[in-house]
Amino acid sequence: MLNRRHIVLLPLAGLVAPIVRAQDALDLLARFMKEVRSGRARFTQVVTSPARAGQPPRSRTSSGELVFQRPGRFRFAYQKPFEQLMVADGQTLWLHDVDLQQVTARRQAQVLGSTPAALLTAAADLQALQADFVLEALPEREQLQWVRANPRVAEGQVRAVQAGLRETPQGPVLAVIDIEDGLGQRSVLRLTDFAINPVLPADTFVFRPPAGVDIIRS
User: Fold this and answer.
1) In a domain, 182, yes or no
2) What range does the domain containing 122 cover?
3) 3 lies in a domain?
4) Is position 6 within any domain?
């Protein structure tokens, strides 16, 4: 925010600094898309529902491990509080709910589209992301560079995504994905222990439904 209490030079300096940081944020995202072809990280996800009818907001926390590879592949292994597995193999998005002994299979192209998964699975080019999102740099906070991504298709479930990135000695990493949906629910995914371009086993993104589970295809 500009400080108007002092001499004219201070507001002028304030105008210059955000422009530089904004360009840095978009450049950092472009480098992340280009240089980080695969990754592995621990994650903690906090989902907060909006307050309704006088009731305070409710939140729930989960954690696990994420692995991804461009283009089109990721593996979310939720470990706490319930075990779930989500795998995108490039063609199909699989969701395995261990407690329910149920697997849901959906065509990946139909369900991912303009979703935050594009940050991890889009081709290694910022233009691939811009095909689905309008990108805007935000002010720096939490010692992170931030980019807001608004879906070009307004009918989707996602209203807005904020991506927080940082520079490390190994390269740029994605630290936070902050998602707001059309109903006002907020999901904040924080990534730690981020490994850039690890060597991944060939079967990392292969999903084989366990014997005896119900399989729902849609």
Assistant:
1) yes
2) 16-217
3) no
4) no
pTM of structure: 0.83
Burial class (CB in 10 A: 0-12, 13-18, 19+), 34: middle
The verdict on residue 5 lying in a domain is no
Residue 22: left if φ>0, alpha if ψ -120 to 50, beta else—which one? alpha
pLDDT classification of 152: cutoffs 50, 70, 90:
confident
- Tell me if 148 sits within 8 A of 162, measured CB to CB: yes
Task: Report the CATH number that the domain containing residue 62 is assigned in CATH.
Answer: 2.50.20.10
Number of domains the chain contains: 1
Say which residues have a Cβ less than 8 Å from residue 64's Cβ, sequence separation at least 6. Answer: 42, 43, 76, 77, 78, 79, 80
Q: Which residues pair with 99 in a beta bridge?
A: none
pLDDT of 216 over the 80 cut:
yes
Q: From CA 151, how far away is CA 156, in angstroms rounded?
A: 8
What the block records as the tokens of 212 is: 């005896």
